[in-house]
Amino acid sequence: MLCVCSEVTQLVLGARRMPLLRDLAIEAGETRSVEITCLNVLAALSDHPLDIPFAALYLRSAASGELAFSGAVGLDARTREYFGSRAAGSDDALGAAIAEAAAHRMARADGVDVFVK
């Protein structure tokens, strides 16, 4: 008996994730306001729960460099409130993660600000 098998997981995942990338590019590229862009990006993420089951969005303040909670998808109200109430330096793992992200310098790559370790 000959049983031929080929792995297609990467093809299936790629085909499923491509619409998410397209939606993010469209939503982020069409707006001119940071607040509206954040809402549009969160809306695009919420439309793809298989790829992004949950996400929290933080914005870096241009003046102070601190990260501020901007919104979340895939989280219940209590968890969303928890994420929103934590700041860099809070006495828990989330506060430590926010502080670590805030400590990274930003670099410009292809017109996008990215974290650099």
Description:
The longest helix is centred in the first third of the chain and has 22 residues. Helix 1 runs antiparallel to helix 2. The protein is of the alpha+beta class. The strands form two sheets. Strands 1-2 form a two-stranded antiparallel sheet. A two-stranded antiparallel sheet has the order 3-4. It is built from four helices and four strands; from the N terminus they run ααββααββ. The chain folds into two domains: 45 residues, no CATH class; 64 residues, no CATH class. The protein is 47% helix and 20% strand.
Beta content: 15-25%
What is the rounded Rg?
Answer: 18 Å
Number of domains: 2
Q: Give the terminus-to-terminus CA distance.
A: 53 Å
Order of neighbouring strands in the sheet with most strands: 1-2
- Quaternary status of these chains? single chain
Whole-number mean pLDDT: 78
Tally of alpha and pi helices: 4
Proportion of residues in helical segments: 40-55%
Shape: extended
Unreliably modeled segments:
none
Element order, helices and strands?
HHEEHHEE
Strand tally: 4
Question: Which structural class best describes the helix and strand composition?
Answer: alpha+beta
For the biggest sheet, the summary is: 2 strands, antiparallel
